UniProtKB/TrEMBL annotation:
UniProt keyword list: Cell membrane, Membrane, Transmembrane, Transmembrane helix, Transport
UniProt similarity note: Belongs to the binding-protein-dependent transport system permease family.
Protein name: ABC transporter permease
Transmembrane intervals: 88-114, 126-147, 153-173, 194-217, 223-243, 255-273
Highest taxon in the source lineage: Bacteria
Subcellular localization, as worded in the UniProt entry: Cell membrane
All residue ranges annotated as the ABC transmembrane type-1 domain in the record: 84-273
PROSITE patterns documented for this protein: ABC_TM1 (PS50928)
One Pfam short name: BPD_transp_1
Membrane association type: Multi-pass membrane protein
Amino acid sequence: MSQSSSVRQEYEVVLEPLLTVPVERELPLGQRLWQQGWLRKSLILIVLAVLWELVARYQNNDLLLPTFLQTASALYDGLISGELLNKVGISLVVLLKGYLIGIALAFALTTLAVSTQLGRDLLSTLTSMFNPLPAIALLPLALLWFGLGQNSLIFVLVHSVLWALALNTYAGFLGVSQTLRMAGRNYGLKGIRFVLLILIPAALPSILAGLKIGWAFAWRTLIAAELVFGATSGKGGLGWYIFQNRNELYTDKVFAGLAVVILIGLLVENLVFDTLERVTVKRWGMQH
């Protein structure tokens, strides 16, 4: 058989349009709305508010449990007068200072831990010693060392952030695959450049989890510390606002202050950390 006869002739098959295949219908409006996370969370908050109102009306004692509407009115008055906003501003300034210092120290410790054996021993020893120690328990020493001022609060905030973030970050660094590590070393990366360009991007889910835990610890530690700190010095932020109104038996204002604590926590969780996860680890396919 000749070579020319063994070659198959090329041809083109024209496909008919699939007009008979049914087009998938759009989801009903109710299902599309239910897929929105913010809407589901808002519905949960509304249900909790209704339950609060019903229980308070059944209790019928404003001193023990004001209604949701009374608390909302106290919250509105505090925001309009500027008193609550001023207290929130004082608290957030102190919180950010302690939080950022804690982040810097945590990354310094974990960078040292992944670089040297002495650093690993140091991080392991310090976290074993200080991580179980409640931050608020250090407030009396902080007041003795730093006096009545922001420095005392910043000290306990650093303690509350440092160890949780350091543990999560170091665990994330240990979980980085050997393939990525070898790729970084092949490019000549060492020391801080190796940590910044290889370890931190690969361990970002664990780092973000540590940042969230550190934020929660710092926020609740600050409020608790301001209760003591405010009672000592007559100054303070949101914690002092709650403590002062509790002494004066303005229970609706106490609940308004607690509501602000919760709202700030929800805003930071949903606007800051969820956005960071969406534009980093979820976008990169590192987290579902």
